[in-house]
Amino acid sequence: EWAIALGNPLGLFDVSHQPTATAGIISGYDLDFGLKESGHVYQDMIQTDASINPGNSGGPLIDLNGNIIGINTTLMGEGSGVGFAIPITRVLSIVDELIDNGYVERGWLGVGIQTMTPALFTAFNITSIKSGVLINMVRPNSPAEMGGMTQGDIVIQFDGKKIHDTASFQRMVDESQVGKIVDLNVLRSGLKKKLHIKIGEINS
Q1: CB of 52 within 8 A of CB of 83?
Q2: So what's the pLDDT on residue 99?
Q3: In contact, 27 and 66? CB cutoff 8 Å
Q4: Beta-bridge partner residues of 138
Q5: In whole angstroms, what is the distance from residue 169 CA to residue 142 CA?
Q6: Mean pLDDT per segment of 10 residues, for the chain of length 204 residues?
Q7: Residue 14 has what pLDDT?
Q8: CA distance 172 to 193
Q9: First-last CA distance in the chain
Q10: Nearest to residue 155, comparing CAs of 96, 115, 118?
Q11: What is the DSSP string of 43-112?
């Protein structure tokens, strides 16, 4: 679908008193990626080739009917003309949190993770499970440590939901209510084990 990115690149809005516009298409959605230069991790993003120039971030991405479908956020330096926007549904949920609480609350476990690959499953001699995430680090005094999680655990379910990769796992943790006790099904030394972990707050 066609999309239009509105914004204020290079301060041009201050000069012309109107935002600038670039047009393109929606070239992908539900995308997760990280930027090496900043270390930021982005999830569930809309990809567009409507130019999101420096200064366009924060402006709306709209469809041809004038509906706001996202908020322009960043561009990919390695890919010419590739930009990303936060979906409007996610933006509205954040706005609701800001109105209700004055801040955005994000769940936290305190672990390092990596996606389980076929090679890793083979190395662990596991054939019955096809997806999950490997816990490669547990922070001291974190919710994960206090809940009994250890390095080498393979998380296969979180709060009753199957884990596919690191992005889906991180999203589930982020969106969990702080203080909620969740059940995690893990494989430890080839055996299934259920943990009960109280979700912490990412800034705690």
Answers
A1: yes
A2: 86
A3: no
A4: 111
A5: 17
A6: 84 62 88 58 83 80 94 74 87 82 84 91 88 93 95 94 87 88 94 94 68
A7: 55
A8: 19
A9: 41
A10: 115
A11: EEEEEE-S---TT-TTSEEE-TTS-EEEEEEEE-TTSTT-EEEEEHHHHHHHHHHHHHHSS---EE--EE
The model scores a pTM over 0.70: no
pLDDT number for residue 203:
63
**Which H/E stretch holds residue 135?**
strand 133-138
Angle 191-196-198 from CA coordinates, rounded to 5°: 145
What sign for the dihedral angle of Cα 33, 35, 39, 43? negative
23 CB neighbour count, 10 Å cutoff = 13
Question: How many other β-carbons are positioned within 10 Å of the β-carbon of residue 109?
Answer: 27
pLDDT of residue 39: 47
pLDDT at position 162 is 93
CA distances from 47 to 6, 51, 66, 70, 194 (A): 15, 11, 18, 10, 38
The structure tokens listed for 125 are 């001699």
- Note the Cα 143 to chain centre separation in Å: 20
